[in-house]
Amino acid sequence: MTTLPVLGLGLSSNAQTADFPRPYALLDAQPGLYDYVEYSAPLDIDVARAEATLFPEMEKRRADVPLVYHPVHINLWGPELEDAERLAACAAHVEAVGSPWVSNDVGWWHHRGQALPGYLYLSPPLSAEGVEQCVAHAVHVKNAMPVPMLLENPTVMTARGALHVLDFMEKLSTASACDVLLDVGHLFSHQLARGLSLTEGLDSFPWERVRQLHIAGGVVKGQTYLDDHPQPIRDEVWALFADVLKRCSRLCAVTYEGDGHPDVVAVANLKKLRGLHLPSPRALAEGQARAPELPSTALTATGVWALLDQTLREPSPELDFRLTVLAEALDREVPISRRAVAPSADQLRHYPLREWLEHGARPLADHFLAWAMKESRRPELAGADALVSLELWARTTHARAQRATPGPVDATFPMNLTEALHAFHALSRHDAGWDGLLQCARRATPGPWRLRLSARGASVHIDPLA
Predict the structure, then answer these.
(1) CA 234 to centroid of chain Cα atoms
(2) Where are the bilayer-spanning segments (predicted)?
(3) Confidence grade of residue 3 (pLDDT, cut at 50, 70, 90)
(4) Which domains are present in the chain?
């Protein structure tokens, strides 16, 4: 049985200084508010140091505030075993920050480095076959890590397979010789999806295998719990957490995943957790036995892709959530084109997400623009082609200019879409104005139309010049 250091209460972070809550500001204002930081960041430590703006402070203070790496870039299910180079990068990252263990949700996060939109992973079927497939992944990843690995129970937006999620995790834990990180919200999602009471099916689980707990926000839609951290923590999750906490005899850590919560809410939740008799930090020895690799025949790539197809085809709260996340990802880069050709979930579901994930080497926004250009030629989308052309031109023109002189770019587009651009911005008030947007695009007159193009986050902002 694995022994690990007892860390106590932790706060999660996406390692960006602009994000809330602000872990170190909270700790400076209230010493002892929490004990460690659990974070997600790119696998490559040099990339993490360059892109994660909080990383310098994290490394500077890790002697007093330990770091636990929770990489959401590692597959613990999916059509292929994780690439050796990615595992080596993860292992080096873990050693560089002194993380005492590494963990991740059991699911399919990415395909050959291309993450599912919003890192909204696909959960495995809760079946004997699903266990077998996940064991192959877990053992493969575990054996590449320099520290013990904890397996996190997946969120269950749609119940697939006959096993209770805790029975699934027990079998997976036993076969892979890995202990468990139990996410209480994910457990609630399973109970809700199955129509079970909060504690039904919990008594037979070997709770001594749970070494860490997660608690986070989410929303309920019918019989589906959507794991969405910026949302408040629900009463049902607090109640289940209190029950689970009493069952865990060898608990080492509890992480409050407060991503997106304002500082004042984070402080209140951390103080509430402190009052629930969590384990106190102390040092213990650590170790985990190497497990034998399983043959790759345990993986059934066809079945994994088929489950993705089914998820993207059949109406469900899970599909609604995935389409919402996809729209948010696209709106950060190509908001005009997304609103022009796929303003609703029903229209966006026709986007060939699998094609992009399985075959495309291009970024999501570029692949979507190519699809949107074809889609915009449909008669019922007349006018959309001008809007997609505008955004494609703006991105290309701006990117080309940045190679020579970084900064805003003045350029001329051959069609005057002033009214249509106004109609696009007005959609923030009334989504029902979509047909008006296309009407304005159809009324556009030949240019020249003078514009200023500037970076705004990952998108190119378009401003007409007088």
Answers:
(1) 20
(2) none
(3) confident
(4) 8-297 (3.20.20.150), 301-464 (no CATH)
